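Try this one yourself first.
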């Protein structure tokens, strides 16, 4: 029997080998995946909350929604949420690797002398490098997953920081425009929605009529939206549709939308236009910054590819 050739000191060496193997796997996952990333810094979350309050204050001062700032704020929040979710996935993946390694040790290495008796080649059980290699191969896919998660989490955290910095700069830039915006607000006095005009303000009704006369007919012109917390609910916005049912407009209708938006830009000061959204871009007369790209909201309609949105003061 094999037990006759097992020296009394071999069980200790085998136990050390197995421990070395488990340690090697831990080192392997650690060196491959890097140090565990930290959660989104509490300071980042607090900063976004503070900036949100600043946006709300500016909206009260500027008498209307600041879609560009809200959009950038939402991008920052999504980036922070993504970083946290990836951190949780990473912790779970590392936990699985640790459990697999522990289970492997318990099933094959709790009694080293028995493992030696059961194998055809006891010498392989004495090689920590061999066992580490075996465990590493078994868990290679999981280790690769960890590496991918580390990279993705670090990228998401960096993106969140960049989004927050962008939001801070946008708020700072808009604050610098206060004097000019105050002049616009003095020029365009507040108006209340009129029941006889479909629930929109007189200013919005004039813009709607002019655009419809110059560029109509449109498939649909949607304005008042009861219950909407934004400009539609206040009677200060209309959507000039270039297609219906959420479909992408034809090239001819896209060109038509370009003509509508360009007309609004040229005549916006006279008409009292506050901002335009078209083709995932926003043109806000309060910032004076020209067209700005917006974040991806998901659908053709949400990204304003099928309609020109117009909000007035």
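Now uncover the answer:
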């Amino acid at each position: 029997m094999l037990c006759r050739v097992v020296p009394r000191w071999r069980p200790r060496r085998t136990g050390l080998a197995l421990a070395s193997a488990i340690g090697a796997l831990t080192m392997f996952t650690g060196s491959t995946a890097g140090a565990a990333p930290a959660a989104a810094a509490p300071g980042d979350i607090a900063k976004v909350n503070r900036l949100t309050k600043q946006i709300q204050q500016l909206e009260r001062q500027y008498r209307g929604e600041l879609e560009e700032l809200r959009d950038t704020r939402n991008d920052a929040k999504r980036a922070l949420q993504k970083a946290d979710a990836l951190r949780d996935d990473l912790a779970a993946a590392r936990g699985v690797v640790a459990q697999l390694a522990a289970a492997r040790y318990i099933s094959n290495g709790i009694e080293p002398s028995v493992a030696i008796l059961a194998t055809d080649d006891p010498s392989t059980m004495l090689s920590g490098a061999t066992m580490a290699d075996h465990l590493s191969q078994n868990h290679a896919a999981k280790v690769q997953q960890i590496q991918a998660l580390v990279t993705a989490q670090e990228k998401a955290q960096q993106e969140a920081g960049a989004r927050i910095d962008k939001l801070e700069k946008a708020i700072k830039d808009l604050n610098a425009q206060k004097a000019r915006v105050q002049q616009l607000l003095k020029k365009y006095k507040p108006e209340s929605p009129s029941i006889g005009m479909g629930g929109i303000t007189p200013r919005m009704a004039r813009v709607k009529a002019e655009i419809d006369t110059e560029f109509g007919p449109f498939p649909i012109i949607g304005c008042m939206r009861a219950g909407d917390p934004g400009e539609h609910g206040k009677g200060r916005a209309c959507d000039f549709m270039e297609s219906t049912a959420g479909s992408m407009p034809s090239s001819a209708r896209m060109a038509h939308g370009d003509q509508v938006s360009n007309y609004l830009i040229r005549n916006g000061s006279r008409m009292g236009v506050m901002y335009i959204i078209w083709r995932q871009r926003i043109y806000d007369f309060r910032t004076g910054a020209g067209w700005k790209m917006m974040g991806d909201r998901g659908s053709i309609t949400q990204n304003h590819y099928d309609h020109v949105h117009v909000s007035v003061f």
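Discussion: Residues 1-22, 24-37, 110-126 have pLDDT under 50 and may be disordered. Residues 63 and 145 are 49 Å apart (CA to CA).
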